[in-house]
Write a structure and sequence with these properties.
single chain, about 250 residues, SIR2/SIRT2 'Small Domain', 9 strands, binds nicotinamide-adenine-dinucleotide, binds zinc ion
Length: about 250
Amino acid sequence: MREDSIDAIVRRIGPSARITVLTGAGVSAASGVPTFRGKDGLWKSYTAERLATPEAFASDPRLVWEWYDWRRTLISRCRPNGAHRILALWGRRYEGFRLITQNVDGLDEKAGSDSVIRFHGSIWEVSCRDGCAKSPKRWVLDEVPLGHIPPSCPWCGGLVRPGVVWFGEGIDPEVLHRAEAALECDLFLTVGTSALVYPAAGLVDAARGRGAFTVEINREATPASGRVDLAVQGGAEEVLGLLERRLGGCAGG
Ligand code: NAD
Ligand code: ZN
């Protein structure tokens, strides 16, 4: 059964295939980055949904920054896994390959991917909370752990915020535009995402609507499982590894 699924995907991957991959927290799970959903997602009994919001930041910026500092420190010790490496390899091998990630951890870049469409921003970037005139739109702040919590804007002395998209916030229009362009593809893989967070969760349906063959790879069934052409159950690192071996490569591991 799984062999048939792998065959069905491999048949659609030729040198000129346009492949778009959407990834979620499950792709970084094998690297040791906790997902949001599930018991590992908890931090001091707070759920991500209660911390990753503009409201939480407005009412307690210190608490929210302590959580980000904990996540940043944890992620700084994590290395890309086979799934990140295979996606980076496909980016070099297939001209029509595009990677959209909901992850904010930067492990795709560490694995060698470039031009990643960072749907939800980066945990390594920050911006001035008030968008003061002198500050850039975003800048890198990769000190771990942070010397001072909450960190302040070097230009105006006010608060800075993490460069991520919080629940209830909109997607950067330029990023949305790039993601929409990537929906024009032959094969769309949605990998390691719970398919609950919109608008990201709607991308697979939009790609299917435009004629792409859609595949989900996840350890568990999700709300998207019944809407894709093919749902493959398994770990991202394992299933992408099987695909890459069938494609004749030797990356991953
Ligand atoms: P999620 O936590 O809601 O869901 C994780 C999904 O991954 C689940 O469906 C689970 O079954 C699956 N999964 C777990 N281990 C897997 C594996 N080894 N292989 C394949 N699938 C596996 O994550 P989400 O869907 O990405 O959405 C939540 C939001 O959380 C996103 O906006 C993202 O920005 C943020 N987030 C990012 C990170 C990160 O950067 N690594 C981590 C946690 C959450
Ligand atoms: Zn400022």
